[in-house]
Structure formats: structure tokens, C-alpha cells
């Protein structure tokens, strides 16, 4: 009751609107503008296909930023990579950079006080999107609060953005956490981010502003019974410095890998490697989450992407960590395949997925897709003893699970962002991504997908005698499995999601 009263008593006036600071207000932004002008106003792009590069890019953007940093994330997990980035963010705030951080409310589960303490810095603002107003104190009360408000609480902000001085941005599938940056000993998510420079970054900034200024975004301080103080922030900074110093001693190899950006920055080199092209930034309207049932199509990213999906004539390649096509997706994919389009998909296998319930939504569609000639590849669980690989980041330090999201149209255009080919991305979560009209970037993304589809890394699902079988390679020998790989617990979860009809929610 006290928490409720504290929330109700908070003044609405604290939520002041703000906009992206123009790129020309910083020397860094002006240098990017000059580079863009030399390429006829096109946007520049570079893939970030592995964890260490993706982490380094974020850290270097913090160091290069002079006026503003805007961060938008679905999940933030504690760990050495996150703490290192927070340390850099605090240093940027100290030198006068304005930092706005917009988090989906799920991020703050049990961490409201810690996250809010960072907002005590005069140059850091933190807001929660679609927040839970009741029962925030414990995991149990939060779960109960969501249970009684499912119509809004199963709809989340899934966007992932990192924007520096409104001139450079990172968009893609990675959340923040060690498992996304090759810093977690037990799990590595293979993913793709896109470094975007120039007009595309500014348009991503416009999407951020729309979410930041939405009535659904509230300052995190509104949900605290006791507000943190400047002393709390000072204590947090000391604990952070001590923790990182201990990590340096206890995990020196990982620490050196992550902190390499300090002594060997790569941003100047990457700026010379950019692919310049026309592009379009696509995003869901924030109000998508307020729909009583399915949202109005005019609010959806998929409506903006529809012309590209309809205009593919030769090859469509999908990379989707979570793939649940439902009937509309099935009809679209089989229709394209029947029209002569080479359609292929890379998704997770049952043994590799981190959400077996989603696999239960995908599996019933396999046979129909295969019957129409759609090629299906399911990434295998990559155990720790495997040799290190480049590209998608499949490596030997931990188990791997696909988390990438990309679409390649006729080897001419590529769409990269937070969007999965499933009902959750289409209907319930909000998403963001960039469509780039570039054969070169499309081919580089296609090469990454083909690597993941190789027999040594994936199972290719095929039909044999009317049944689905899985073809793969071990010790350089192809062989066929007639039973789907995956333990009993995963099978049970996949079966249960089908049995209770969760498909529309997956």
C-alpha cells in the first residue's frame, strides 16, 4: 500500500519531454556529417557479427560521444560487460554528455533501486516503458501484478538501440549482458548488430524520441518508496570500481579482451570500412502495446516491411532465432516458394534454443514448409570444446544459441533489427530495424547465414518417407537422424506449449 501511495503521489511534471541533440552540436557529429556529405548523403553501415566487436563498438561510441547518448533495451543483465559499460557511461556523464536510458519494465525486476541510483547523476535520465505500477517490491508481487494485467503486461518493448551524438547508432538483436558479448562461460548468443552512420542513425534517434516521450515511458524514480541520493551514487561508483578491479585480477584474460578498446580503438578503422547505401528505418509505434486485441496495421513495422516481402522474386533468406510463422506466415512462405523463390530459414534447433516453448510453436509447420520446398536449417548446440570460429561468433568458450534476426531479399536488400518472424514480434512486442538497399551488405549478411547453415553447425530438416529427419555432419561425415535432437525436458516444454495453445503468444 505504501508503494502504491508513493507512486500515486509522484508529480507527473517530472516527465519532461526531450529530443535528440543535433549531430552538429559536437565535433564528433560534425566529422560524421562531413563524411556523409562526401558520400552524397547516403548512410554508412558495418556489420557487427560477433560479441567482442559488438561490445567494443558500444564502448567506443561512449568514448566518442560529446553531447548525447541514447540507449533503448529490452533486457539488461548484470555482469562484467554491463558493469564496464556503466563505468564508461558514468565517465561520459561526468564530462557533460547527456544520457537517456529507456528500459522495458522487465529489466528492472528486483533492480529498481540500483538502476535508479544511476539517475541521481545530473546528466543521466532513466525511464521505464510500459511499467508495472503495482507489486514491484518482490518477484512474487511483480508476477501477481502482471497476472492481473495480462492485456498490457505481456506486451513488451523489444527494441535495442545505442545512439551517440545522433550521428552513429547500433541496432540489432543484442540485449546487454555477458551472454551477448562472448563474456559468459556457460552461454553465448550468436547475434548480428548493424553499426549505422549518418541519416540512418538520425532516423533511429527519431524512433527513440517517440518512445522516450510516449505516455507509456515513466521516470524510474516514480516507482521508488525511498529516493536514492548523491551519496548513494558515490557509494555505487566506489563499489563498481572495486568490483571491476577484482574482476581484473580474477578473470584477467576476459578483462583484457573486453578492455582492448582502451589501448587499441577501432572506430577510425571501421569508419573507413563502411558500406554506403540508401536505407529506411522501420519501427512499431509505441501505442501498439495499448491495443485491446491485435493492433491496427498502421502501427506496425510489418506493414512497412510488407512491400519488400511482396517484391522478392529470386531468393529469400531468413535468420530468426524464434520462428513461429502461424498460418499467415506459412501461406506467405509457401506461396513464395511455389512461385519459384528459393526460400531458406536458419533458426534454433530444439537442443539449442533457450525457449523450448517457442520451438513447440514452430515444429508443427515444418512438414508443410518442407513439402513446398522451403529449406530449413536448425542451429545445433555448439559445445564448449569446439574450435573457435569467426563470423557469427560460434566458438569454443561456451554453448551457443542463435539470437540473430535478419532478412535478405534477392541478394539486393537486407533488413536487420530486433524483429523475429513470430507472433510476438508481429503483434505484441515493439520492434525496430533498418532496411538497407545494398547488394554488398546483403551478400555479407548472406555469407554469415550460410555459415550458420553449414552441416557442421546445423541440422537440415528434410522429408524422408513422409517424416521429418535431420541431416548433419560429425567428423566430416554426413549422417541422418530420425529422432529430433533434444532432451526430455525440452521436448516436454515444446509439447506443452502446443498442448495448451500458446502459439499466438509465442
From TrEMBL:
It holds the Pfam family PLDc_2. One of its GO terms (biological process) is cardiolipin biosynthetic process. SUPFAM superfamilies: Phospholipase D/nuclease. It comes from the Bacteria. Coiled coil: none annotated. One of its GO terms (molecular function) is phosphatidyltransferase activity. Residues 153-180, 398-425 form the PLD phosphodiesterase domain. Gene3D superfamilies: Endonuclease Chain A (3.30.870.10). PROSITE patterns: PLD. InterPro entries: PLD-like_dom, PLipase_D/transphosphatidylase. Signal peptide: none annotated. This is Phospholipase D family protein. It comes from Pseudomonas eucalypticola.
Amino acid at each position: 500500500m505504501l508503494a502504491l501511495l508513493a507512486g500515486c503521489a509522484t508529480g507527473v511534471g517530472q516527465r519532461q519531454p526531450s529530443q535528440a541533440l543535433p549531430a552538429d552540436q559536437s565535433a564528433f557529429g560534425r566529422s560524421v556529417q562531413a563524411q556523409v556529405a562526401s558520400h552524397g548523403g547516403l548512410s554508412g553501415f558495418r556489420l557487427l557479427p560477433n560479441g567482442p566487436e559488438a561490445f567494443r563498438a558500444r564502448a567506443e561510441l561512449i568514448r566518442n560521444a560529446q553531447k548525447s547518448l541514447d540507449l533503448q533495451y529490452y533486457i539488461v543483465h548484470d555482469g562484467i560487460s554491463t558493469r564496464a559499460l556503466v563505468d564508461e557511461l558514468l565517465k561520459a556523464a561526468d564530462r557533460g554528455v547527456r544520457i537517456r536510458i529507456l528500459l522495458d519494465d522487465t529489466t528492472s525486476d528486483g533492480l529498481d533501486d540500483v538502476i535508479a541510483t544511476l539517475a541521481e547523476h545530473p546528466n543521466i535520465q532513466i525511464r521505464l516503458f510500459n511499467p508495472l505500477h503495482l507489486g514491484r517490491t518482490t518477484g512474487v508481487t511483480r508476477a501477481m501484478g502482471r497476472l492481473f494485467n495480462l492485456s498490457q503486461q505481456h506486451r513488451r518493448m523489444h527494441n535495442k538501440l545505442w545512439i551517440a551524438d545522433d550521428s552513429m547508432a547500433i541496432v540489432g538483436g543484442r540485449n546487454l549482458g555477458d551472454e551477448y558479448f562472448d563474456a559468459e562461460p556457460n552461454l553465448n548468443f550468436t547475434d548480428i548488430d548493424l553499426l549505422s552512420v549518418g541519416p540512418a542513425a538520425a532516423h533511429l534517434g527519431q524512433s527513440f524520441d517517440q518512445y522516450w516521450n510516449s505516455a507509456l515511458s515513466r521516470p524510474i524514480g516514480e516507482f521508488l518508496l525511498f529516493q536514492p541520493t548523491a551519496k548513494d551514487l558515490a557509494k555505487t561508483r566506489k563499489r563498481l570500481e572495486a568490483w571491476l578491479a577484482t574482476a581484473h585480477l580474477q578473470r584477467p584474460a576476459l578483462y583484457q579482451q573486453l578492455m582492448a578498446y582502451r589501448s587499441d580503438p577501432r572506430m577510425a578503422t571501421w569508419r573507413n570500412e563502411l558500406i554506403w547505401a540508401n536505407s529506411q528505418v522501420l519501427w512499431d509505434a509505441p501505442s501498439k502495446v495499448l491495443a485491446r486485441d491485435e493492433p491496427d496495421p498502421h502501427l506496425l513495422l510489418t506493414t512497412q516491411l510488407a512491400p519488400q516481402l511482396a517484391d522478392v522474386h529470386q531468393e529469400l533468406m531468413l535468420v530468426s532465432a524464434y520462428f513461429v510463422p502461424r498460418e499467415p506466415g506459412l501461406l506467405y512462405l509457401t506461396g513464395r516458394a511455389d512461385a519459384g523463390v528459393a526460400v531458406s530459414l536458419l533458426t534454433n534447433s530444439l537442443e539449442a534454443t533457450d525457449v523450448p516453448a517457442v520451438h513447440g510453436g514452430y515444429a508443427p509447420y515444418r512438414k508443410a514448409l518442407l513439402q513446398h520446398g522451403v529449406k530449413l536449417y536448425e542451429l545445433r548446440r555448439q559445445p564448449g570444446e569446439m574450435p573457435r570460429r569467426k563470423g557469427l561468433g560460434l566458438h569454443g568458450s561456451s554453448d551457443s544459441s542463435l539470437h540473430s534476426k535478419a532478412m535478405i531479399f534477392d541478394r539486393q536488400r537486407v533488413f536487420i533489427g530486433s524483429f523475429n518472424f513470430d507472433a510476438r514480434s508481429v503483434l505484441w512486442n515493439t520492434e525496430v530495424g533498418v532496411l538497407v538497399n545494398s547488394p554488398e551488405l546483403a551478400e555479407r549478411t548472406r555469407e554469415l547465414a550460410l555459415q550458420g547453415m553449414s552441416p557442421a553447425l546445423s541440422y537440415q530438416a528434410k522429408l524422408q518417407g513422409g517424416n521429418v529427419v535431420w541431416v548433419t555432419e560429425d567428423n566430416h561425415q554426413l549422417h541422418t537422424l530420425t529422432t529430433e535432437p533434444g532432451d526430455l525436458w525440452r521436448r516436454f516444454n515444446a509439447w506443452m506449449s502446443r498442448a495448451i495453445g500458446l502459439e499466438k503468444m509465442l
